[in-house]
């Protein structure tokens, strides 16, 4: 409340200066006028709805916008930094802000990126560009066992929980999704009224804590799940196995954030720190996993059911593929989360060293499903630092059918990456449960920004595809994305990675996949391979 008290102090100084000028000497206007201007600015900041920072930090918040006028030098260093201190891509955050605000993102004098650097990637344009479609395509999610398929947009809101996000942030995201006709993943924190009230399409995520459908002991509660999954806003159900920010580790919500409302939504005690287990209690083998997915789909009355993971061992994922084939059960979708993504707080060593990057993870999942003959039954979503139209097209090239964005959607609702999420002192009201800070985020304004960002970014992806001569996403292939290997030498993704033909693993696994395929066991998640050095030390 001290930040609001400052406005009161400025007003008191302004009134005092004015009285002295009127009663004592007009010279006092020189001292009082700045206080009057500052007080009026503070009142305006508290009343306006476009800038959350100014609503939470009247007058002082203008210093941030002053910094933005000094771009690119100061803004690039002080504002556009990644979560771990390394520079975020120069253009990405600016593009998100400009699209969310409806500002033309075109800039003169071309790219500032060094195209001669090793690892530079580009999409291949065509001498015969195609026409940009009038309406963006949608992806029908639903395999042979799904009776209520869902048409997914090319870009959707990725998983972020109520509790981690404020109520106003959730309302803005879902309202934006409802207006724009795209999906909003709830995150593992349960279904709240803020998810349901605006009427946007929801992907209800079920994590290891089974929040919103858990027993007192923390087990899965089928009755609660069936009741909530029946809500018409719930269009899909996603079972979270792991997330990119911290695969193999459960989430933590500090007790200071667990108020009565969040405790009710999650089904946990109020005021106590909530620690999600790193593993699921409902299953312990690949075969049990696919059976549990089938059970969820039955309880959800045939709505699409899938799972999300940050891939690790190829052997383990192949074990799940073998379990699918053996049981005759497939999920309707799989969301691949990259290790470079993630909006949640995570130990630095997990963020830097654990998990597969999205490119390798996505290609592995797509290729494994293709090689086992399951790809046609399962759609793939990609999440992990997806923020631009080119990001979408690249992920489609690598095997995804659609994409999800979390961090970019947070930018759209006003996040400035202050990295205060875990303190409950978020300056823009995005990641706080403090009602005074959360009120700074105006739902109407920020919902419109979410819609604008999604629509503009999808349109950008369609423009890029048209420039490549592609009329349908199904025509995108790995030969259309190329990477500089060294001076004067480029290789396409068709050359850089191994791509299997449908059913190849079942017929004759290639040598590079044979060991993983042989070791994969549908009845255990054990990786099944030990190096000679490990065997020598343990015999």
Characterization of this structure:
The protein is of the alpha/beta class. It has two domains: 2-79, no CATH class; 139-469, Aldolase class I (TIM Barrel, Alpha-Beta Barrel), CATH 3.20.20.70. The protein is 40% helix and 11% strand. The chain is built from 22 helices and 15 strands. The chain has helices at 2-23, 28-47, 52-56, 62-69, 73-78, 92-100, 167-180, 193-196, 222-229, 260-266, 286-299, 314-327, 348-353, 358-371, 389-397, 407-412, 435-438, 443-467, 493-496, 504-507, 511-519, 532-537, and strands at residues 121-123, 139-141, 150-152, 155-157, 183-185, 201-206, 234-240, 252-253, 274-275, 305-309, 333-337, 379-383, 402-405, 481-486, 489-492. The strands form four sheets. The protein has an eight-stranded parallel beta sheet. A three-stranded antiparallel beta sheet has the order 1-14-15. Helix 1 (2-23) runs antiparallel to helix 2 (28-47), helix 11 (286-299) packs across helix 12 (314-327) and helix 12 (314-327) runs parallel beside helix 14. The longest helix is centred in the last third of the chain and has 25 residues, at 443-467. Residues 72-88 and 530-539 have low confidence and may be disordered.
Task: Summarize the SSE layout with pairings.
Elements: H1 2-23, H2 28-47, H3 52-56, H4 62-69, H5 73-78, H6 92-100, E1 121-123, E2 139-141, E3 150-152, E4 155-157, H7 167-180, E5 183-185, H8 193-196, E6 201-206, H9 222-229, E7 234-240, E8 252-253, H10 260-266, E9 274-275, H11 286-299, E10 305-309, H12 314-327, E11 333-337, H13 348-353, H14 358-371, E12 379-383, H15 389-397, E13 402-405, H16 407-412, H17 435-438, H18 443-467, E14 481-486, E15 489-492, H19 493-496, H20 504-507, H21 511-519, H22 532-537
Parallel strand pairs: 4-13, 5-6, 6-7, 7-10, 10-11, 11-12, 12-13
Antiparallel strand pairs: 1-14, 2-3, 8-9, 14-15
Helix pairs in contact: 1-2, 6-18, 7-18, 11-12, 12-14, 15-18
């Amino acid at each position: 409340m001290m930040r609001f008290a400052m406005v009161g102090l400025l007003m008191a100084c302004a009134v005092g200066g004015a009285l002295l000028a009127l009663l004592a000497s007009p010279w006092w206007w020189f001292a009082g006028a700045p206080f009057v201007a500052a007080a009026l600015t503070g009142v305006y900041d508290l009343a306006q709805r476009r800038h959350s920072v100014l609503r939470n930090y009247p007058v002082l918040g203008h210093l941030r916008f002053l910094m933005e006028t000094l771009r690119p030098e100061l803004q690039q260093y002080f504002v556009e930094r990644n979560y771990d201190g390394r520079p975020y891509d120069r253009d990405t955050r600016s593009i998100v802000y400009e699209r969310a605000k409806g500002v033309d993102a075109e800039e003169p004098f071309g790219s500032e990126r060094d195209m001669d650097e090793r690892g530079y990637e580009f999409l291949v344009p065509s001498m015969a560009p195609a026409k940009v479609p009038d309406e963006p395509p949608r992806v029908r999610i639903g395999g042979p066992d799904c009776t209520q398929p869902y048409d997914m947009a090319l870009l959707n809101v990725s998983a972020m929980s109520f509790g981690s996000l404020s109520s106003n942030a959730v309302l803005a995201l879902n309202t934006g999704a409802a207006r724009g006709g795209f999906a909003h993943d709830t995150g593992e924190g349960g279904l709240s009224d803020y998810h349901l009230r605006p009427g946007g399409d929801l992907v209800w995520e079920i994590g290891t804590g089974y929040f919103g459908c858990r027993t007192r002991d923390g087990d899965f509660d089928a009755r609660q799940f069936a009741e909530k999954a029946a809500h018409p806003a719930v269009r899909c159900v996603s079972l979270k196995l792991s997330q990119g920010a911290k695969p193999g580790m459960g989430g933590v919500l500090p007790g200071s954030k667990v108020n009565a409302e969040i405790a009710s939504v999650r089904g946990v005690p109020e005021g106590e720190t909530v620690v999600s287990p790193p593993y699921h209690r409902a299953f312990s083998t690949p075969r049990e996993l696919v059976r549990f997915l089938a059970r969820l789909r039955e309880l959800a009355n045939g709505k699409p059911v899938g799972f999300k993971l940050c891939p690790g061992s190829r052997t383990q994922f192949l074990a799940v593929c073998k379990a699918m084939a053996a049981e005759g059960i497939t999920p309707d979708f799989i969301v691949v989360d990259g290790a470079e993504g993630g909006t949640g707080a995570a130990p630095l060593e997990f963020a830097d060293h654990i998990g597969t990057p999205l490119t390798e993870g996505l290609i592995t999942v797509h290729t494994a499903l293709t090689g086992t003959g399951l790809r046609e039954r399962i759609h793939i979503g990609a999440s992990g630092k997806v923020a631009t139209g080119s990001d979408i097209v690249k992920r489609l090239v690598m095997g995804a059918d659609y994409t999800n964005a979390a961090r970019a959607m947070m930018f759209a609702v006003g996040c400035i990456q202050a990295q205060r999420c875990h303190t409950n002192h978020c300056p823009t009201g995005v990641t706080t449960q403090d009602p005074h800070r959360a009120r700074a985020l105006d739902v109407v304004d920020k919902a419109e920004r979410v819609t604008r960002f999604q629509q503009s970014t999808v349109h950008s992806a369609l423009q890029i595809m048209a420039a490549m001569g592609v009329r349908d996403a199904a025509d995108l292939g790995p030969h259309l994305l190329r990477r500089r290997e060294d001076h004067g030498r480029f290789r396409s993704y068709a050359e850089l990675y191994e791509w299997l033909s449908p059913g190849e693993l079942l017929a004759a696994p290639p040598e590079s996949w044979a060991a993983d395929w042989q070791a994969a066991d549908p009845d255990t998640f054990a990786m099944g391979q030990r190096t000679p050095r490990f065997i020598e030390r343990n015999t």
